Amino acid sequence: MTLTDLATRLELKVHTAGTPLERPVLGGYVSDLLSDVIGHGRKDDLWVTMQVHPNIVAVAVLKELAGIVLVNGREPAAETLQQAEREGVPVLGTRLGAFELVGRLYGMGLKGS
Amino acid sequence: MELRRFRADLHIHTCLSPCGELSMSPRAVVDRAQAAGLDIIAVTDHNTTENSAAVIQAARGTGLAVLPGMEMTTAEEVHILGLFDPGTELGPFQATVYRNLPDVPSKKRFVKDQVIVDAADYVTGFSPHCLFGATRFSVQEAVDLIHGHGGLAIACHVDRESFSIISQLGFIPPGLCLEAVEVSPRLTVAEARTAFGPFDPLPMVRFSDAHQPEEIGCATTDFLVASPNLEEIRKALAGKDGRRIIPS
Q1: Which residues of A touch B138 (CB under 8 A)?
Q2: ipTM, two decimals
Q3: Which portions of chain A are predicted below pLDDT 50?
Q4: Residue A35: which of B139, B166, B173 has the nearest Cβ?
Q5: All domains of chain A, ordered by start, with CATH?
Q6: Which region, left, alpha or beta, applies to residue B101 given φ > 0 means left and ψ of -120 to 50 means alpha?
């Protein structure tokens, strides 16, 4: 499954321009504590969060995550968007809450660790 | 000017904090701070400065220096300490913070009475604000707001698992101009430096985060300064003019 597949099927908004959406997504993790994601996120995970601070980009790069989905219609901070585009980290968004989004992702076959 | 050692605990709550004990009245705070051998304290309730003036007044004539302050909750749920000079007009700062708190009435069942008091410990009112809530300010905006009112901005209890800039954001965002990083009483500065840091060039301080009288002074930082005031502490944190933190 790629980010494009997920974005299409779940009608996710793609916030970043020019970031790789054809990258495979192998699992998922949901947390709003960046220290927790640093501890438990895995390479190629899709990260579901409501944090919009620029540090989310650094965490995604550090953990080689496939991408970030912001829930509840949260808009990334301007600096977050700039950094994400510079670092090639796809940032997507949904109006759904984290529970609903993760439920749908799980239903599509995406699993946690 | 002669420099000497002043013992500081610059993170103390009062009965106005939703988690502060009712016994944290201005007189009790001052008495306990003196008994603990402190030279300077700061009153830092959650998202409010409204009890600061009462503690400053209660300390008048005792020799204890008191700074007004606030422990602000940012949108990321990071706690940032703002410390100010007692001469600062904090009304506009406070109004800005209140405007940016959630409009949710505090539920008495889960939150202690948010008690506003005078210098003689008389209750003058109860805060209707959602003081346990998070403001709309990002950490950067919170630090800018504190600096804009002449204050010092310190990231609180970075070793804790909640409300710490490290727990919430993983690391301190580069370019964030904090004056210091605070360690909770659970760890020594050296232990925190090993476990979570180092935070160079940011200096590390250790304060009590007291919510009850017995906790006041259970973690302190000693400053080598000319007198116990905000500008001297600012210099000590920056290591200027011979002022500095005295390692414990």
Answers
A1: 53, 77
A2: 0.75
A3: none
A4: B166
A5: 3-107 (3.40.1390.20)
A6: beta
